[in-house]
Amino acid sequence: MGFRKDFLWGGATAANQCEGGYNEGGRGLANVDVVPNGPDRAEIIAGHKKMFDFDNEHHFPAKVGIDMYHRYKEDIALFGEMGFKTYRLSIAWTRIFPNGDETEPNEEGLQFYEDLFNECHKYGIEPLVTITHFDCPMHLIKEYGGWRNRKMITFYERLCRTLFNRYKGLVKYWLTFNEINMILHAPFMGAGLYFEEGENEEQVKYQSAHHELVSSAIATKIAHEVDPKNQVGCMLASGSYYPYNCRPEDVFESRKKDRESYFFIDVQSRGEYPAYFLKDLERRGIEIEMEEGDKEILKENTADFISFSYYSSRVATNDPVLLKQTQGNIFASVENPYLDSSEWGWQIDPLGLRITMNDIYDRYQKPLFIVENGLGAIDQPDEAGYVEDDYRIDYLAKHIQAMKDAVEIDGVDLMGYTSWGCIDLVSAGSGEMKKRYGFIYVDLDNEGNGTLDRSKKKSFDWYKKVIASNGEDLSNE
Prior knowledge:
Pfam family, one: Glyco_hydro_1
Active site: 372 (nucleophile)
Low-confidence stretches: none
EC number: 3.2.1.-, 3.2.1.86
Organism: Tetragenococcus muriaticus 3MR10-3
CATH class: Alpha Beta
Shape: globular
CATH topology: TIM Barrel
Family: Belongs to the glycosyl hydrolase 1 family.
Number of helices: 16
């Protein structure tokens, strides 16, 4: 049986990690521009260290990215050569509204994306557009406090209305917010939140989340009004939690950890806040301010499909001794002794993808779309820039097989798959270039040195074969 005939194979990037051209084409400054790599990065993206502009002490990789702003035709041609059916990319908000609160958009920014979308269609590639992939104009952060301010709903609505009208007929697949649950874990990067000393951070995060959820519903409403062919998805940073052992306390802890992220999609997919979430806020003394009509907007404008990123499963326990061992990326997790780990400590669990797909599909019964999955690794190119990345091929083949099992054996409805960082780009978590995901090598190091030349890795031709066979041929030959 396999994947559906119109399965959307492709790859994914984010504007702030690949475009560069931060001060070109009338673009304004965004939160994602002023996040440096290096030891201060974690504190800055968490909203605990103030970085509202560039300084001379840090390196800011988003300034250049991989210079896709100037090289997108070359890159999309390579995607076309691989046979991409779709390309997931994001809009840089500050290319369209440089400050974020203008009433008229920046024509140069609008034209840039129109040209990019036309380039995609030239190769038969359907754009899948993330409206906000962590981007928040710095002016909106300085002037309004980022997403804590309800006025952000108006600014976001204006952005969406502009995009849906301008790109009608060019784009039909949209995502409102990338990894919307990241607001709880990286609030400055995720929502432009910087916390003043003594501020109730949890209150601010959940109020900001409400503003994003209402904005997402409004965007869905407008998209369907502008073009009934539009399909709008929500987007979750996923990875099911396993209990550390069969202690009932650990089993329940894993349920609670899953719910921390699922509540966002519960709202976006089902249209209302779940009872467990409201009870939890009540216990913690957190009160979400809602305006009249918010509940109706959420209820009447739910997502058409559920998209998510998956890199690894996670492990939960309430054992304080085990909790001391917790480590990992932005999502900390107790180590799973049954799994291998990547060079960055992310645990590799292909079956976990199948489990996660089943968990999400059982919960929502809506089509799924895997929009991020991949292996961040250190690649060693030869003199020609060629990388024999068998480790990446092995990782992706096992995950695609697990995804296929979820479709064929479990009956999960899956629309498509876009591997993360289909071309090497700056890592969102660490700000590094050496943490590479792509099928295409980009000659650039962590400090911004290199030619920016593109070259195909071994995985390039492997993925081309996977797409051509609609996922039937996963062999590395």
